[in-house]
Specification:
The structure is a homodimer. By secondary structure, chain A is α/β, with parallel strands linked by helices. Chain A has two domains: about 200 residues, Rossmann fold; about 170 residues, Phosphofructokinase domain (Rossmann fold). Helix content of chain A is about 35%, strand content about 15%. Chain A contains 14 helices and eleven strands. The first copy, chain A, has a seven-stranded mixed beta sheet with strand order 3-2-1-4-5-10-11, with helices on both faces. A four-stranded parallel beta sheet of chain A has the order 7-8-6-9, sandwiched between helices. In chain A, helix 1 packs antiparallel against helix 3 and helix 4 packs across helix 5. The longest helix of chain A has 21 residues. Chain A is elongated and about 70 Å long. The termini of chain A are far apart. At the A-B interface, helix 3, helix 6, helix 10, strand 9 and helix 11 of A face helix 3, helix 6, helix 10, strand 9 and helix 11 of B.
């Protein structure tokens, strides 16, 4: 137990940014001011890269008003990194910590970041160096283990829901088939959230496909054709990680030269290839039908001014709780959220889970939230996702 | 002069929807209630298609609260149409009008819709049938002649600006080159509006390309390379109608099998082909640089809950003014806006222009708003566009 530990702090942000990732950063900085054990707060520029290069800014010097403005701003204010540190990289991080009397490390990111925090923690332990290491969760993919949900997800889900609501009205105006590609390499949580756009019986999305349920092109086209026959139109939400029944993602099948980042994650967002491929396949089977596709892309994680208030509050909470726990009896861990109550009674409490329990592996969209046909979510998913998103627009229809 | 004319009304919506097109519809319906010359208000389902098929809803029966909800809702509540009526089609429209004692026709759309209104008006005149015909402007492209600007543009510009603000922060987080494709087949007004996202010197967009200024691939790649050398990153906004110096749009060069609609407009939105093509070209010249692209797609015209208040008010005004003028001494025309004052003193007044003056032809982004290099807008464009958009997010930076 290192509760009497005094020393400097390093805080970093990692991986794909979210629109509320700076809420967590500001939560960390605010809480640091309340405890005497913390020295300087070194903000690492571009995550682990900034640590090994000793590129820091002193975050305790930022005025409260400026901190609030930063909290409202999408994407990692310190800069992010896609580096995935191996053991050697983690040793270099540790050496910088030792050199700068860093005794506290708060790392805000996804499962890869939790893994980095875990390795750095082990290196310090092996060296007999007192260091407290906390992972603060973040991902629009919502695929971290242990925690009920992840900061960043609720705001991304709010954007996707708004986008599909508007897009569904557009599709009512000029009828046809519309495919919307939503982020989510391996997990369908974000695509699933689009179910909130459906408020009337004939609203879209009419179909939702997630990576957890492989689908043949025949089923995909057949499902769309069925909806089109019934409504004269069809709005389809598709996770970018949609895959065939042989387990190979469609995007991989389309193109052999997809760029891979250092984590081995294939880069899917920002490419129109999947959208164009799926529309061409549907067109082959439904000639003469108006057919459009959009890839929502990076706006899903960076769109400002449409932040979910619940998500912003929880992201701030996870940051401040990491510091609060570090000032107390716990030496390391990942901040997790547990939910209590449904609907208006929804609230969360945080707890600390071992770094290893969150590191590396991810959590798919649960089976109970996917319908038997594998082309939509179950009603129970509404209870899960609705409390996490911001207010939805109140709309009106002219019934014909 | 047909000011004593009494009879039924047909109102229709046409072309690509906007997020405030229903404000104009509600402006029409509200104003109709104030004048005794108007009989039933027949809303045409899917524009001219609904007229020839005699598919109408009675809009005077809708309760005020429901009308307000419809006004707030993106995309044509009556349904829209891409049909471009020829003389024969217009004759059929006229026959339906005569059969149903329709004496007033309000058509909300772009330059094609103004042209339809113009032809129908001439057919009625030739037949000696008293009919008043008004065009209510609408287009996110902002490319109608005579009027200072078009309802729908301000809200689309608000979305694009928000999107680029968020995207620019994302690009600061994970540095590289980002290309954002914005709607605008022949006019760069919407792409130009992204200049509002640039508030600090190093903010994006760093480059803006519009169809009015053809560009070679060498210049395009060279411009990006220059910005990247200076800032270590580059955010580029590109109109979907970007074209080569031979006048051929890049999208046409990429693909020979682009779908054309009945207006002969090539369908560019919703395809990732241009984004993928441009990124591949940049990649060839800047190996190893992180390179991403998004196509903002249909969200630009349909995103709810981020409506420009000025745009909503003006769209409503154009609808109500069409009816007000029809109840008076004027027989036909297109409602146009003239602006007075700058900044906080901005206001508009409407006037009526001849249908033929707005029909068919469009208005490109003015020369005075494009810089000499053809890769950005001039400062004077700020004064033009800023009053039209909604509030922008207040953001904060950590300076490194």
């Amino acid at each position: 137990m290192k509760s009497e530990l005094k020393g400097n702090v390093v805080v970093g942000q990692s991986g794909g940014p979210t629109a509320v990732i700076n809420q967590s950063l500001v939560g960390v900085v605010e809480e640091l001011h309340k405890h005497e054990c913390f020295g300087k707060c070194l903000g690492a520029i571009h995550g682990v890269r900034g640590i090994v290069d000793e590129q820091f800014v002193d975050l305790k010097q930022i005025a409260p008003d400026d901190l609030e403005a930063i909290a409202r701003t999408p994407a990692a204010a310190l800069g992010s990194s896609r580096d995935k540190p191996d053991e050697d990289y983690c040793n270099r991080i540790f050496e910088v910590f030792r050199k700068n009397d860093v005794r506290y490390f708060f790392y805000n990111g996804g499962n890869d970041s939790a893994n980095t925090a875990h390795i750095v923690n082990e290196v310090a332990q092996q060296a007999g160096y007192d260091l407290k290491v906390f992972h603060v969760p973040k991902t629009i993919d919502n695929d971290l283990r242990v925690t009920d949900h992840c900061p960043g997800y609720g705001t991304a889900a709010t954007f996707v829901t708004h986008a599909v609501i508007g897009d569904d009205f557009d599709n009512r105006s000029l009828k046809g088939i519309k495919v919307d590609i939503v982020m989510g390499r391996d997990a369908g949580w974000l695509a699933a959230s689009s179910m909130l756009a459906k408020r009337e019986d004939d609203d879209g999305p009419h179909l939702i496909y997630v990576p957890e349920r492989p689908v043949t092109m025949e089923q995909f086209v057949g499902d769309i054709s069925d909806v089109y026959d019934r409504l004269g139109r069809c709005v389809v939400v598709v996770s970018e990680g949609i895959r065939d029944v042989d387990g190979v993602i469609w995007t991989k099948k389309i193109s052999q030269d997809l760029e891979a980042d250092a984590h081995g994650n294939v880069q899917l967002s920002g490419t129109g290839a999947l959208a164009d491929f799926l529309t061409s396949k549907v067109k082959e089977n439904m000639k003469g039908v108006r057919m459009r596709a959009d890839t929502f892309g990076y706006l899903q994680r960076s769109f400002p001014a449409l932040i979910s208030p619940v998500d912003a509050r929880e992201a701030r909470l996870c940051g401040s709780q990491a510091v609060y726990q570090a000032a107390g009896a716990i030496d390391s861990g990942s901040i997790c959220m547990q939910r209590f109550g449904k609907g208006d009674r929804y609230r969360v409490e945080t707890f600390v889970s071992a770094l290893a329990s969150v590191a590396a592996e991810t959590k798919p969209l649960l089976d109970e939230y996917i319908n038997d046909a594998g082309n939509y979510v179950t009603p129970s998913f509404y209870d899960y996702v609705a409390p996490l998103v911001g207010p939805l627009p109140k709309v009106g229809y002219i019934r014909k």
